[in-house]
Amino acid sequence: MEQTKFMAYLKELFEPLCNQLSLHVGDVIENLCAELATPPLTSSVRVNTLKTPIVSEGVESVKDVLEKYCRERNCSTSISMSVHPLLPDVLLIEGSGPHSDLRLYDKEILVEMTCGQSVLRGADVYGPGILGAPKDLFIGESVSVYADSGNESRKGLVKKYDGPKVYIGNGKACQTRADWFGPSAKSSGLAIRMTDPLYISPSLNEMLLNDVAFPQSLPSLVVSHVLKPTETDRVLDMCAAPGGKATHLATLMRNKGVIIALDRSAGKMKSLKHNVKRFGLTNVHCFHHDSTAACSSKSDDASSQRNFPGPPPYPPAFFDKVLLDAPCSGLGQRPRFNFSINLTDFTSLPLYQKKLLAQAVLLLKPGGKLLYSTCSLSPEENEAQVKWLLSTFKEMILIEQSPVIGYPGLSMFELSREECLKLQRFGPAAFNKQLSSSPLSLDTIGFFIALFEKKN
């Protein structure tokens, strides 16, 4: 029911744009969902240039991880890797698929939807993700693995599941059914080694990469390069966990200047602090705080300067650069099998994003830059927010970005053609692939970037 309501909402949202482009909205939404159900074939890794200033040295560490991945799977061809032509600290790793010639085995394993999505990005299957398995399964046996795409199956299923499911590849059992269900069930452990996945898309384990490299989506790597922090900047990352962008900014700043990294989730703060420590960064200061209350006119500027870098709130016009990678619907994450999104939650997100944007403007110095990003394809979380900010805060102007790897923003919400050209979108774009400046901007998760400057 939630999916039906949400799809109807998407059609209503995109219909004016589709009419403008002479496209059938039903076909556009269908193609969009089909593309979101597949993983990007290109993975990206950021080399820690503080640890390995010469990127080619980082290549060797990543290559070791890739070779191990291929040895454990029936990879008929080697996985190619190259340095991104516009992002000198980014490695691109080319996967392949779908491999439609795989044999289907009689014995089937059913896994949770989220587990299946991870498998399409290169992961193996672990015990907690299994929903169903045959009783007579032995260790070492070959099985075909399916994901419960409808998110409807009960745990412990014995028979083959006849509900909505997606084939994700073949593997070998490393445990038995008794390890997953019943009184002797294990809480963890490798359950199925995916020897023949539908997509060859290396899972770049952060533990294997240590402090040399960091797996990150390509658009999120573009963010830090577009914001261009300097070694003397005071930077605020308003929603920083788990720390990919904060640690990237810190690396570009050569571990100099100051970055304040805030996040309202206590649980996610652990990941943020772990990544900052893992990269040996001393210019990133992490605080558990909701950024909708990051600025206070009552904060004394002299006192804040004296105690900086201390915890929030901070006085107005305190930061040279502000990054707002806003909490969003995630309607750009790939792969995604299901769109059972609560419509009320989805439509309430823009209000929270506006609260964060208002704080960002207050905290930004005149002449400073604000970067707004989401991992959503929804125009209401993207172009609509750009129009609102420009209309509400006359001191803010939209400025050009560099590097430009994505395609322009959508002509919606009365944004001019010139303004759309200053925005970057990434990922599936059934309505305007012809506007893409690079095929790499399409084979990524869905993402959006806008860059603003505060007038003096």
Automatic annotation (TrEMBL):
Keywords: Methyltransferase, RNA-binding, S-adenosyl-L-methionine, Transferase. S-adenosyl-L-methionine binds at residues 239-245, 263, 290, 325. The keyword RNA-binding applies. Belongs to the class I-like SAM-binding methyltransferase superfamily. RsmB/NOP family. Residues 141-455 form the SAM-dependent MTase RsmB/NOP-type domain. This is SAM-dependent MTase RsmB/NOP-type domain-containing protein. The keyword RNA-binding applies. The active site is at residue 375. It comes from Amphimedon queenslandica. GO terms for molecular function: RNA binding; RNA methyltransferase activity. Pfam families: Methyltr_RsmB-F. GO terms for biological process: RNA methylation.
